[in-house]
Amino acid sequence: MKIVKRQMMLHHAVSIIGGFMAGYTICNHTDLLANAQTGNLIHLVVSACHGDLAGIGWCLLLFVIYAAGNVFYVLCRRVSRLSMKIVSLGVTALSVAAVSVLSLTGLPYLAVAPLAFAMPVQWNAFKIAGGNSSATIFSSNNVRQTFMLLTNYFLDRKQKDLRNARFYAATLLCFHLGVAAGCLSGMAFAAQGIWCCLLFVALAAVAYYRYESAKIRAFQGEA
Hints:
The protein has 223 residues and is an all-alpha fold. It is built from nine helices and two strands.
């Protein structure tokens, strides 16, 4: 149980990162959300309907980069001996530096491109915790799961449904605390507020260390 608890704590720590990136990009880069592609693809179609060639080009660029993040995850998982969780945190840290530099260009789509690569890597690396499938980079499924599980609990009174509902609700809370941090960092430091995200990357790294340590101790105890 301790391992599961540490895994959930890691998931929630990483959810803060996902929320930070969402809040940061929306507040600092003309309402763009680099974490997901739904809005971007809608912008793509709208740009096509208006004959906005520049908009089409930028949206296609983000789509390709987001897809490349998923391809990178699959390939890296096959060839690397490193945990993909560590790889994800490393990619996120590098994306922070890249966004800081690209923000100086004044091109919002270009500035968020590194996050469009890093966020799907995070999504894939931290997609399951405590047996629950949960995204750390957006909220739709977490909202759905929270209220479905709560409804099931009130109907059937199964403690498992309540525990899982709490997990998803905590993920939502952590994500939106990250959103607030991303917005506040932008208000304080404008586009360079992206550097504040490294604090949460460090927090997630500590949570990862504690999770792995718990697994090692459990294995040694069984041995």
